Amino acid sequence: MAIVGVGEVGHHLAKVCKFHGMNVAAMSRSLTPEEGRKRGYDEVFGREDLRDVAGRADAIVLCVPHTPQTEGMIDRDIIQAIRPTSVLINIARGKVIDEPAMIDALRSGSIGLAALDVTAVEPLPDDSPLWDLPNVMISPHSASTVKEENERITDIFIHNMNCMLDGHEENMRNLFDMKGMY
User: Fold this and answer.
1) Euclidean distance between CA atoms 95 and 100, whole angstroms
2) Which of 11, 55, 115, 128 has its CA 20 to 30 A from that of 61?
3) Which residues are catalytic?
4) pTM listed for this prediction
């Protein structure tokens, strides 16, 4: 399993995968291999190694935010590296994938299956070829709609607001790092 983006969602996914006996390769901008091993990952890799890891993985799960750096991250070159027996799962954002390149790969069978919770255009247009491909599963952008989501978001907001009011910003959780975006 290759997990692209090991923030909160990616890390939880990795724990589930490890519980089921999978080897987990985690792509991170900041984790060192030593830190990754402490978190339970079998391998930590950077974006420069994404093509190689995508070519070895049985499944690739995208969990990164949509930023200028991640837009089109899964480009034609990465897609061509994915094996015909592999699964590409996108629970990130649709624009992280070069969708026309993915459609070509799905049509030719060079990707075994794509499970898409998100697409480049949402809602997915009726005339999108993704609807008719037998090796595509589409869900209605619902990966994040778990029952407890609003409660968790509220808890994080209140925690962070209290940290800010008390002058303890260093204890805030789930901060979005905008450094290097612009």
Assistant:
1) 11
2) 128
3) 93, 122, 141
4) 0.79
The CA-to-CA distance between both ends of the chain, in Å, stands at 31
Residues 122, 83 share a domain:
yes
Which residues constitute the domain of residue 14?
Answer: 2-143
In this structure, the answer to whether residues 130 and 62 fall within a common structural domain is yes
Q: Residue 111's CB: how many other CB atoms inside 10 A?
A: 25
Cross-strand pairs, 88: 60, 114
Q: How many domains does the chain have?
A: 2
In tens, the pLDDT along 24-60 reads 999 998 899 999 999 999 999 999 999 999 999 999 9
* H or E element at residue 70: none
- Which phi and psi (to 5°) does residue 143 adopt? -60, -25
Residues 168, 134 share a domain: no
94 and 125 housed in the same domain: yes
